[in-house]
């Protein structure tokens, strides 16, 4: 089964408000077995718009990745980042095993 990946590009505009998202989102990620592959480390933009943070999160399947995003726990956490950042979030299916 192919894995699912969240790919998020984020620029924080209100760190205090965004801290509420950072406090609550981990519970949703843990519930769905998320594994962070990249989160806020150094990045070099070679094409397109520059973003402050680059996040890649792996899930066991596309279905799990979508279920996490749609969950009440994540949507509640997400409300804490509204107006606190600019974000571009994509959920992509990985290559099939084998």
In short:
By secondary structure, this protein is an alpha+beta fold. 35% of the residues lie in helices and 31% in strands.
The chain-level mean pLDDT equals 95
Question: Largest sheet, if any?
Answer: 4 strands, antiparallel
C-alpha termini separation: 9 Å
Assembly type of the chains comes to: single chain
Count of separate structural domains? 1
CATH class: Alpha Beta
User: What is the number of helices?
Assistant: 3
CATH architecture: 2-Layer Sandwich
Class of secondary structure makeup? alpha+beta
List unreliable stretches of 5+ residues: none
Rg result: 14 Å
Helix content: 25-40%
Structure, described:
With 98 residues, this protein is α+β, with helices and mostly antiparallel strands. The chain has a single domain (4-93), classed as Alpha-Beta Plaits. The protein contains three helices and four strands, in the order βαββααβ. A four-stranded antiparallel beta sheet has the order 2-3-1-4, covered by helices on one side. Helix 1 packs antiparallel against helix 3 (72-79). The chain is globular and about 40 Å long. The mean pLDDT is 95.
What's the structural blueprint in terms of helices and strands?
Elements (H helix, E strand, L loop, with lengths): L3 E9 L2 H17 L3 E5 L13 E7 L2 H9 L1 H8 L5 E9 L5
Antiparallel strand pairs: 1-3, 1-4, 2-3
